[in-house]
Amino acid sequence: MSIIVFGSINIDLVATAPRLPVVGETLLGENFFKVPGGKGANQAVALARLGIPTQMVGRVGGQSFGAELVNHLQTAGVQTDNILIDETVNSGVAVIIIDDAGENQIVVIPGANGQVNQEDIERVSRLLPTAKALLLQLEIPLMAVVAAAKAGRNANITVILDPAPAQSNLPAELYPLVDIITPNEVEAGQLVGFTVDSKESAATAAAVLLQKGVKSAIVKLGAKGVVCATSEETFFVPAFAVDVVDTVAAGDAFNGALVAALHNGLSLHQAVVWGAAAGALAATKLGAQTSLPDKFTFDAFLKKREW
Question: Whole domain around residue 125: which residue ranges?
């Protein structure tokens, strides 16, 4: 049984600088590099590198980076037969600035990701009978996310939603279709309408998300840890202490490892620990897919910390 990831595929254009610029400021940078990214593709690679059979469904452009992006996914072990090469548009692009503290600012140009439509949903639906879970994000049109979630629910497989980029206007019909939602603190705040910046406010936000209809709510607080709530329990998992270089794709690493743990039959608590570990590891390296840990590195990291 495989995991289906339905979402964005981007090329990331990354600049590093001592700090993030303020509005209107021109700032001298330090380095520039180009790496494959996109929240959907990142999460597919995170899964594949942990040894999980993974199918990516999405779109790339016919020119500008399309073949390169598909090749990167194949090299990571992701099945790419259901990626459409759209000759009418460019591939998605993310322009990223990272400061010396590892914090970032990101602007995403959707490109081919913005053209995802019913044709892509049909490709997802054809894969569902042989899938264990469907992993979604919000870098493709919202109507496609809702339709895919409905298809996943009808197929009786686990639907996981990473509600990123942050949005405050998710349709009410989406929440009951979701088994696990995994916002970070900014995204959680957008979804519930109040600031989320502590264990207590994260627990409150998770409870609101449960009331909206999701079965499990996982609120990621970065270095402050993770709060998870279900109808039966609410628990906290502390963050793993690491030297942060770049937080880009740390959330994608979290989601990939979370789903990998569930695929392997581990409990939700263990899955959150796996997510926290993978997110921490990803934050120790620059780039999106380049920072995602392989199984050997991940297993060694967990073993060293006696998990």
Answer: 2-8+38-90+113-304
